[in-house]
Amino acid sequence: MLQLYSSLGRRVLPFRTVVPGEVRMYVCGVTPYDVTHLGHAFSYVQFDALRRYLIALGYRVRYVQNVTDIDDDMIAVSRRTGRPIAEIRDENDRLFRRDLDDLNVLRPAAYPFATDHIPQIIDATAQLLDRGFAYEVEGDVFFSVERFPRYGELNAASLEELARRENPEAKFAAKRRHPLDFVLWQHTEPGEPSWPSPWGPGRPGWSIECTVMSITHLGEQIDIHGGGRDLIFPHHENEIAQAEALTGRSPFCTFWLHNGMLRLDGVKMSKSLGNLVLVRNLLQRVPPAQLRLYLLSSHYRSDPDFRRGDLERLEERYRRLRVAVGEAVVPGWPSAADLPRAVREALDDDFDVPRALDILDDLAARVVAGTAGTDERAGICAGLAVLGFDFAGAPGPATGWFEPEPADPK
Ligand code: ZN
Asked: CB under 8 Å to 88, separation ≥6 — which residues?
């Protein structure tokens, strides 16, 4: 039975869903103010593999991933370059999606843009005000963390501890009642993109966007919420508070899954440090499936350290797996029932893909040496297909609008 580690409660739990047989999965998408890098690819490839495993286990999976297309960074880049936000967004989003297509990542069932949800965001903000979870100060609306007693639960920290740790959205410090109160709606400065609202022209806060898009496309309660570990605070803590205050239902999400942060030579990869590694540059050196193999060779919760030669060192394994598969590809969607038992045990154990790959590679070595049987070869194919390798027959990105039955958002 599949067990997954949830950041909420910080423990490994047997996987279960709100609606039996159906998985509602939301993964925080990118803010396309610039090109994406290998760290993004690590996150989306990991969640893609998990989605595929859930499908192989027989779940109907509805996967939603958003685009944060209005925020301080988008506005800053637009100002600096003199280009409209939509143009910057579309250009970076196109490159990002091409990278994911190349890496054989299934496309989301819904791919919502924040700016397409302004009426719903205004409505949610108005409801939070009505219910006393929010307050307005001169055109800015804040969520009051003291009104939500479980605030801090995801981070296992009190308000005092969290406030000591960080001062998010510092520009609002003088206006808000508590240092952790976060903005739901903010008034805009002249020249910034804005929308009319009951509180004057403005734009949404960051966290309310994801809550509204999740509820709109998946309903009030979801099974898996994914994202990078750097989103646990404040973004995901805020999302829980907003959603549960809005719907009165708890938990908003059962499994909070957070991937680790990819580093380059021991340093976190980030734009400000100028140490970005781009997928498209790596794909000039190695085939996409070999890069996918690299990204899945670290556990999703680990912090992989990308170093020179890492990709090339995987070449032998990559070739061995390909030779072992040969022409024996899996037609259609693979089933978990066809996986070698040890592989299934590894995947069930908090989705231990690196261990599963080690087992598959051992089997591949036996196939190549001529000491394995047909069953073993079929097991390798099933394993690699479940993990999304196209050469083993895994369905490609365009088949990712996999939605046997539409969700029924209430
Ligand atoms: Zn988000």
From this structure: 32, 33, 74, 77, 78, 81
